[in-house]
Design brief:
The chain is mainly alpha-helical. It has one domain. 66% of the residues lie in helices and 0% in strands. It contains 7 helices and no strands.
């Protein structure tokens, strides 16, 4: 009976450790690298917008934006924040194509609302964020008046 109890306790401990958000990473660097890997994997796949394969990326993207970002937000530099949200816009652009703006305006979508709000804090509009994300313009050209390029 004691062995069963010990095995049961060990099993519960293992299950509870698995349910913690490992996708967020154990550090800011792990969090950012995991997020950038997700964006690179999702955008490199060249999936059509209607492909069911997006579901696996959408859920991971949602977790990073809605859950993980808040965990590390206070540790991120302004440059890291800009890069995170520029990559989010890149994801939306690849995921929704020309329907990106409509998707970001979607009422009731917590992830889209968070992306839109954070992008508006940094850039004048999502198009500017997309230009930075795709490397079509230097970041310092897109900052709001009074903002500085800082690490």
């Amino acid at each position: 009976m004691k062995q069963f109890l010990l095995v049961a306790i060990a099993g519960l401990a293992l299950l509870s450790s698995c349910s913690q958000q490992p996708t967020c990473g154990n550090s800011k660097a792990d969090f950012l690298q995991g997020y950038y890997d997700l964006i690179n994997e999702a955008t490199a796949g060249k999936l059509p917008m209607s492909d069911e394969g997006w579901k696996k990326y959408d859920e991971r993207f949602r977790a990073y934006v809605e859950e993980c970002y808040e965990q590390y937000e206070s540790e991120l530099s302004p440059k890291e924040r800009r890069r995170f949200w520029a990559r989010s816009v890149k994801y939306y652009a690849r995921r929704y194509g020309t329907g990106m703006v409509k998707e970001l305006e979607e009422k009731g979508d917590k992830t889209a609302t968070k992306v839109k709000e954070e992008v508006e804090k940094i850039w004048m509009n999502a198009e500017e964020a997309l230009k930075e994300a795709t490397g079509k313009v230097k970041p310092e050209q897109l900052l709001k008046p009074g903002q500085a390029e800082t690490e």
